[in-house]
Amino acid sequence: xxxxxxxxxxxxxxxxxxxxxxxxxxxxxxxxxxxxxxxxxxxxxxxxxxxxxxxxxxxxxxxxxxxxxxxxxxxxxxxxxxxxxxxxxxxxxxxx
Length: 96
What we know:
Blueprint: H1 13-20, H2 23-45, H3 50-57, H4 61-68, H5 77-86
């Protein structure tokens, strides 16, 4: 006897976000939140203050605060590369 499909399983969450017209915005915000968290965690593990990090990146503390703000999705790649370099990390960007 064939198994009946589950009537409670629908489309994916990504499909739902696309249908609502917020997929790109939600994805960008999710990526930025993860990046901000990773940078903050790397700074913490190195015992680095925001002032020290900003100085090593040759930027202002307010610019670093924008980088670390998980709700600010504006982030230039060169700024991300500077942060990664200071922290001894790599950045990988991929279109799939």
